[in-house]
Amino acid sequence: MTEMKQDILGIDTNAKTVKGAKFGYVTGIAYLAPSTESGINTCQHASAGCKAACLFTAGRGAMSNVKNARIEKTLTFFRNKQVWLTKLDKEVAKLVKKANKIGKVACVRLNGTSDLPWENIRFSDGMNIMEKHPTVQFYDYTKNHHRMFQYINGDLPTNYHLTFSRSETNNDIAVKVLNKGGNVAVVFRNKLPDTWNGFKVIDGDASDLRFTDPKNVVVGLVEKGRAKKDETGFVVEPE
Questions:
Q1: What are the structural domain ranges in the chain?
Q2: I want to staple 34 with a disulfide (CB 3.0 to 4.6 A). Which of 79, 100, 113, 224 is the partner?
Q3: What's the rounded Cα separation, in Å, for the pair 208 and 31?
């Protein structure tokens, strides 16, 4: 197996993760090609509205060279998984060292633009990346309700935090997640309401540190990129 040259983790590479620095965190995010953009589906539960509004279309993600790099990174993952994981392992360790050096805490978001079950993706020794780095806080958004309920039930690694992502096709499940004590991210048009379905809405754009959110809340996000033109119901009109 050959060594992978392309970096996997972007370190505070977007406006939202940079905001985490003032709270004492350094964030590494892995950006893969979303949905079927690479020819391999990395977002099994993505809705039509989600695909059309994906952050792959916002900011740097809309640039062709960035898209191509993420597609190549995705294909490398599926073709040479152990090489990819070995590189990720080294980069997480490097991130921790960097964070410690500047007096901050390292955290990692594995699904920047994908929705893969990282708890089931294992190194040749049988461990997953969270088990390899038990002191690092990992976190993600997911539309996979099976994973979300596993998280709520305490069946995922204790250092892996999940927030459920609401779409136009899983609204009822999103409410169930809230009723069971989980958090749900909802994209709103122009502004955030105070509540959604009776649950408090917090500002999810203040930072990307979802693991610091209070429990049982709606993480409100204002629409970005192509989501501004959404008519599927993916973007919620605040009352």
A1: 9-229
A2: 113
A3: 14
